[in-house]
Amino acid sequence: MSILNKLKRKLGEMALNNLPRNTSLKPTGYFDAFSGYFAKFPESKVKVFAIYPSLTTKLVVDKAFYDAFSSFTKYDPAVESGDNVTLSCTTDYKLAVIPYGRIIANNVSMVAVITEENQLLSEVSLQYDVDREAKGKDSLVFRRKYFSTPLFINGTVFNMLGGGGTINNIGHWMLDALARLNFLKEAGLFDEVDYFLVPNFAHEFQKESLQLFGIAPERIVVADGETHFQAERLISTSHPRGARSYLVPHWLISFYQNTIGEKAKALNTNYPSKIYVSRRDSKLRGIENEDQLISFLESEGYTTLEMSKYSLLEKVAIFQQAESIIGMSGAGLIGLLFANRGMQFLELFPRGFVHSLYYNIANFLDMDYQYLICDSASKSEDIKKAQLEDIRVDISDIKKITDGWKVPKY
User: Fold this and answer.
1) Which positions fall inside the Glycosyltransferase 61 catalytic domain (predicted)?
2) pTM for this one?
3) Is 173 part of a structural domain of the chain?
């Protein structure tokens, strides 16, 4: 972002906080459930599709692993039983078609979906909160005094905004933004959409993934910072991972394997079966002794790859063809969504950034999952610091795991 644009954005933020304008555009109420909305507005033309009613996602982890999780990744209810902990999240997945609906968003922590009656619909909106599940009353839209005039879009617009992580991170893009297309297909409305509202359209993985679903660039509307749209017909959905959940629902994995995964199988490629995914192409979370690690892994038959060098379909094909993958936790491992059942997977963690995301995917695909928590300078207590943690890997610990993989299971 240029200095001029940064200044414009800062001035815009100041205006939003201090200078009242168009305050009639502020929602006059909110509904945490559609039932309450329809009770008050029975003549409403909003149409709601139940996609996966009251779907519960569960994940069982051993207690030692759970105890190592970073506090800021423990969003889901946990029930201990012996040496295991069961995590769960129940979501009533819905899609809403809203005539003359509006979206007010900062494209980071807030996406407020508002009806023609000026009511916020929580079930298809987003309000990010670090510590808890946010409700309609928590939306930052209610703290605003300044409202820009909405840009009106003729036609049907599908809302894919999923929070700040989706702007630049391929993992969040796949999990929190692009996955919403599944709801659209399940409702049978994909072909009725004229425009797709996305958090960003600057990265190749965003352009390529949308193209794989037949969405041309001229049908893309980008939310650039502060956003206020009104559409002749707005379609919005529940969050793919539910309200403040770290769990990955099974439908999401199946959706990608049956769509992008099938397209990748048509590529005429031949990638190594044993892969080490390096983060040398990232400025965040490096490995201090990576040269030593790579030297050892090469002696074990592993090939080092940096995911940023490959197209999205190539990334998918790499994970599809792999029999064994080792890598440090991060967005470069999102290709696990497309991996084959039963493969070997070792995830390396900094002490301050341990979570269940990739174990969740590995568990669903019956992988031989192993994890290793590595030394770092300090144990971070928040997500921002955790994302910066470099680690040092104990090669002897890696060898124990790879040696174990060489022993036949049966």
Assistant:
1) 171-343
2) 0.92
3) yes
Provide the pLDDT for residue 4: 44
**Alpha-carbon distance 297 to 324, whole Å?**
11
Quote the number of domains for the chain.
2
Instruction: Indicate whether 292 and 222 sit together in one domain.
Output: no
Pair (44, 134) in one structural domain: yes
Clarify whether residues 235 and 307 are in a common domain: no
Question: Do 287 and 385 reside in the same domain of the chain?
Answer: yes
Look up the domain containing 308 and give its range: 274-406
Positions of the chain with pLDDT lower than 70, given as ranges: 1-18, 130-132, 378-380, 409-410
